[in-house]
Amino acid sequence: MAFLLLVLALVLNFIISWANASYVGRYWSESKQVGGSFRVYMVIGYIMAIAGFTMVYGYILLLICPFILQFAKVDQETILMFEQLASDLIYIFCVITMIPTGFYIWIRSLKTFFEKKTLANGLTAGWNTYAQIHNVVSAARNVPSAFGRIVEALFGGKSKKKGNTIIVLCAIFVLILAIFGGYFTASAIMKKADREYDMFAELEKSHPELHS
């Protein structure tokens, strides 16, 4: 059951990240010309998409790696240490990217709702409020322990073993691989949407009086 919930969460996260990257791509080139808060909003959305895909790829790698390590005759204790460190690194990366950008999106959604009090804007602001509170509370509970384990693994203590170095390197490699996967996926989707959609052309079609 827990595995099924994890898979569903990853699928949902992938879909949301795809939607974010596609939305950003539709306005990416135009946002460079418009600038200001609109450009900031697009950059924030791009970062969120990268972080979302990174989380998905990171946890997929965490599901695959134990089988590879077992095939390589790595003992169970080492595998567990690797899984914990890689999981902590991925989590910390996602927290430091998603929470700051989430604050911006949350505040912007509240501003939009107060300016245009529609049901859609209200639902968006409500969801963003819930998501941001949930993420902040979760981070407050989990970041200190995760960060502590990372520091212990990287800098060690009395119990640090020389053999742990390979675990650290493998965990960092998994994080880097996940980030690159997130970056290239988000960028590919964004560039495709950017080529296929022209905001200014669509505005001219819907409001021809603006062009004249």
What do you see in this structure?
- With 212 residues, the chain is an all-alpha fold.
- It has one domain.
- It is built from seven helices and no strands.
- α2 crosses α5 and α3 packs parallel to α5.
- The model has no long low-confidence stretch (mean pLDDT 85).
Q: What is the distance, rounded to the nearest whole angstrom, between the alpha carbons of the first and last residues?
A: 60 Å
The quaternary state of the protein chains shown equals single chain
Count the DSSP helices.
Answer: 7
Q: Give the biggest sheet.
A: none
Number of domain units = 1
Percent strand:
under 5%
Brief overview, please?
This protein is 90% helix and 0% strand. The protein is mainly alpha-helical and 212 residues long. It has one domain.
